[in-house]
Write a structure and sequence with these properties.
The structure holds two protein chains of two kinds. Helices cover 4% and strands 35% of the residues of chain A. By secondary structure, chain A is mainly beta. In chain A, the strands form ten sheets. Chain A has a five-stranded mixed sheet with strand order 1-31-32-33-34, with no helix packed on it. A four-stranded antiparallel sheet of chain A has the order 2-37-36-35, with no helix packed on it. Classes of the chains: A mainly beta, B alpha+beta.
């Protein structure tokens, strides 16, 4: 008996270490991420980017008891937009500008920090962010602000190789977390405000050698080039070689369907962002989703959400893939709440448009034609366009729960913008926006007119005082029913939110916002269950994971990473 | 075609000239609202221009070779934001130092520069700050509600730095049409707690779950919204309009005084 007790105790003691065996993260593991719910293996949680965790320990009934487990302070200034990975008890998170930190996911103690030295002359729009890493085998992969891809050993934090992806002097950068598929690492490039010619490229995971590259702006003669029209008007400035700096960046991670062998990527704004006159046509493949063969990078299909965009409606949302029932039949669906304010359902095998419906106030279009192309309604000068430049939503990740069958989206509601374009000449590495725009805060006595000089919602960051209030827009979490596109419930916030959402197997969703609250919300009703003021804005995707049977929730606010769990 | 070539085309040059001379660009430059360049901003900008820019650019904006502000064209700026960036950066290689101004000053300078092509400077009537202070403390009775450098009431916002955070036009509009220009954060609130206590005050901050206010006596209160029976935000300002109450000269004097309040 004593021998058995000793054996049992030994087994029990060793069990956590066995569970945390730190085995290489194979393609098979990545393809079956749902089988290891304790881990968070990819930027989107799984290849479908559902950001649904099957973990169930934290429930609507007990989430009110969540308490702080540990805090990691990065001591690096600037908005922290990273999404951590957690693999067998170890968390890998990027911090500005291109550090990777490996932490004990139970205590927050640091194993190692890898620091990448960027070219000091880099040009990056909208913050020197790195949104995370990919893992494959025993290697982490990070894109850099100076447009390189680096491979880093998971155990030591030492770099293994570094590959050139693009020329940072021309405005290229990488801010997204790469996607590991089979034996290749796929990245897209940022730089949409600098007139790049965007692309998505795959690299050999072992060697860093480029395998394929797909340009998001077709060259003359290639399919899609007909959407870069010739200059016809005599009174407008028109650029006959607009395609060369047509932007089409890809600065947020894509998704993958192993059964179709297709990767899906959201493509960013056209360049210049706001002055459409100098680039006639629909400007493919900007503001689109593209489906590529995962092995060759060849285009399988595309759908353009905002043809000839003049509002910076990047389609850089993470493609959410879901297997649902549609009109009584199984459907391999793609669900997409777009920056342009519409929620879409597409057939991800073919790209067929199935549903499009506004989830926030929209007046840049009035509906769709039979092919799913929006019927655009340009607003007159001085009148607001909805949604505003930050969109109905943006880059932060939504979540789809296969339990509730709802899509959870962080939205900006009722924010309007007065858009205007001005001619802009392309100069390498220089801002190529071509815009003149301002947010619209309606007067109390006459909502059709703006309050002159009123404070407006800051584009990226805020201090602790909300001077703009909700008069010119506000945030919300929306639960959208993909069958109809209708909002089943709305969780309204006073300020806006740049926080992603994660849903769980116990029907709890976690999200943040600019006000600095980490919130647990009932996924079925939209009722607040628990909140904690973290003291600074959350601009990232919360995650949940488990180590030794204990479920944690982690999110960054300000310069710190906070982790919560239920008391023992 | 390059931009330069585009603008060198005769038809385009003529069209651009028409637009610029008509003040089109000026109106377009901020938000497409002509009222954004108010008379008060232009007058304030004229004074700042005299103090900071005249020495090199001259009173007519033609003092630097190759630069003519009266043309309405700015070779390195199309939008107001770009114009401010040029002023902030300067052109050290050409002898222009970088300038630092607060938001109110930039609003004034931009308004003046944008209107130099059509403006008769002789028509400007800049106010007298000393007389304006007398209006504030006397006829205007502003300190019955506002506070300036430690004097006055706490009912309405403290004005000690209003000249740094509000443009001249915005201040003038507040005096004439307070309901239009009242900032959303400053809107009066009426609160009734679950215990039945009524509180009137001014919102100073708010989030989804809480609201922070200054009550009528200036006390700072932070309240949980879940503990309130009533929370309403008025869209009407408690401030009276001074339209017709002050003469144009008094109004101009008062605005010019408020613009000197830059905080400590």
């Amino acid at each position: 008996m004593k021998r058995f007790t000793t054996f049992a105790l030994t087994l029990f003691t060793l069990l956590p270490y066995c569970l945390n065996a730190q085995a290489p993260v194979t393609y098979d593991r990545l393809s079956n991420a749902a089988k290891e719910p304790q881990n968070y293996l990819t930027y989107g949680g799984d290849y479908f980017s559902s950001r649904f965790s099957p973990l169930t320990q934290i429930t609507p009934a007990n989430a009110k008891n969540l308490s702080l487990s540990w805090v990691y302070q990065s001591a690096v200034a600037g908005s922290w937009e990273s999404t951590p990975l957690v693999v067998d008890g170890i968390m890998y998170v990027t911090q500005r500008p291109n550090d990777v930190v490996a932490l004990d996911a139970v205590t927050g103690r640091v194993f190692w920090i890898y620091h990448y030295n960027n070219d000091p002359k880099i040009t990056v729009c909208c913050g020197a962010n790195s949104r995370g890493v990919a893992i494959l085998g025993d290697t982490l992969y990070m894109g850099t602000l100076d447009a390189h891809l680096v491979a880093i050993d998971t155990k030591s934090g030492h770099p293994l190789w570094k590959s050139d992806v693009a020329d940072s002097k021309a405005g290229y950068s990488i801010t997204m977390a790469p996607l590991a598929v089979k034996d290749e690492i796929i990245v897209g490039v940022g730089g949409g405000e600098y007139g790049i010619r965007g692309f998505i490229a795959a690299f050999d995971a072992k060697t860093g050698k480029e395998r394929w590259k797909f340009y998001t702006i077709p060259a003359p003669g290639e399919p899609g080039s007909e959407t870069w029209g010739s200059c016809k008007t005599a009174t407008a400035y028109c650029d006959p070689e607009a395609w060369k700096h047509g932007s089409g960046s890809a600065w947020v991670t894509g998704s993958f369907d192993p059964s179709l062998n297709m990767i899906y990527w959201g493509i960013g704004n056209v360049g210049p962002d706001y002055n459409g006159e100098q680039r006639p046509g629909d400007n493919l493949y900007t503001c689109s989703v593209i489906a590529l063969d995962a092995d060759t990078g060849k285009l399988k299909w595309h759908y353009q959400f905002t043809p000839h965009d003049e509002y910076d409606y990047d389609s850089v949302q993470v493609p959410v893939l879901a297997d649902i029932t549609w009109k009584g039949a199984p459907l391999k669906a793609m669900l997409w709440a777009n920056r342009n304010g519409n929620f879409y359902v597409l057939d991800r095998a073919t790209g067929k448009f199935l549903l499009g419906k506004p989830f926030v106030k929209v007046n840049w279009m009035s509906g769709f034609d039979d092919n799913g192309k929006p019927i655009q309604t340009r607003q007159p000068p001085g009148m607001p366009t909805y949604p505003a430049v930050q969109g109905g939503t943006n880059w932060y990740s939504p979540s789809f729960s296969p339990r509730t069958k709802l899509m959870y989206v962080s939205a900006w509601e009722d924010e309007g913008e007065m858009f205007g374009g001005v001619p802009v000449e392309y100069k390498e590495g220089m801002n190529f926006g071509g815009g003149n725009l301002s947010l619209f805060v309606p007067r109390a006595d006459d909502p059709t007119k703006p309050i002159p000089n009123a404070p407006t919602i800051p584009n990226l960051r805020r201090g602790p005082i909300n001077n703009w209030t909700d008069a010119g827009g506000h945030g919300a979490v929306l639960a959208i029913d993909p069958q109809t596109g209708t909002v089943k419930w709305r969780f309204r916030m006073t300020d806006v939110t740049d926080s992603g959402i994660i849903s769980t197997g116990s029907d709890v969703i976690f999200t943040g916002g600019r006000e600095g609250y980490l919130q647990a919300i009932d996924a079925r009703t939209g009722t607040l269950i628990w909140k904690q003021n973290l003291g600074a804005q959350m601009i990232n995707n919360p995650i949940t994971y488990s180590v030794n049977g204990k479920q944690y929730v982690a999110a960054m606010a300000g310069l710190s990473l906070f982790t919560f769990a239920l008391p023992n | 075609m390059t931009l330069k070539a585009f603008f060198n085309r005769p038809a385009i040059r003529a069209a651009a000239g028409l637009l610029l001379s008509a003040g089109f660009l000026a109106a377009q430059a901020i938000q497409g609202h002509p009222e954004d360049y108010s008379r008060a901003d232009i007058e304030y900008g004229a004074r700042l221009y005299s103090e900071n820019c005249d020495r090199c650019h001259g009173p007519n904006g033609t003092g630097v070779s190759g630069v003519d502000f009266k043309s309405g064209k700015f070779s390195h700026a199309t939008t107001d934001r770009q114009l401010i960036a040029v002023i902030t950066s300067g052109f050290p290689e050409a002898g222009m130092p970088p300038f630092q101004f607060d938001d109110a000053q930039f609003a004034g300078i931009v308004a003046f520069l944008r209107n130099m092509n059509t403006l008769d400077r002789g028509s400007l009537t800049p106010g007298n700050p000393a007389r304006g202070q007398a209006v504030l403390e006397g006829k205007g009775a502003c300190l019955n509600c506002h506070r300036v450098n430690g004097k006055g009431s706490r009912k309405a916002p403290d004005l000690s730095d209003v000249g740094a955070v509000r443009s001249a036009g915005s201040i003038e509009r507040s005096l004439v049409e307070p309901n239009i220009q009242m900032m959303p954060i400053n809107r009066p609130v009426h609160i009734v707690t679950r215990a039945g206590k009524a509180i009137d005050g001014r919102r100073v901050n708010e989030d989804t779950y809480t609201v922070q206010i200054a009550d009528q006596e200036g006390r700072l209160l932070s309240l949980q919204k879940s503990e309130l029976r009533e929370f309403s935000v008025s869209t009407k300002s408690n401030m009276p309009s001074y339209k017709g109450e002050l003469t144009p000269a008094e109004m101009s004097d008062l605005v010019s005084y408020l613009l000197t309040l830059k905080g400590q």
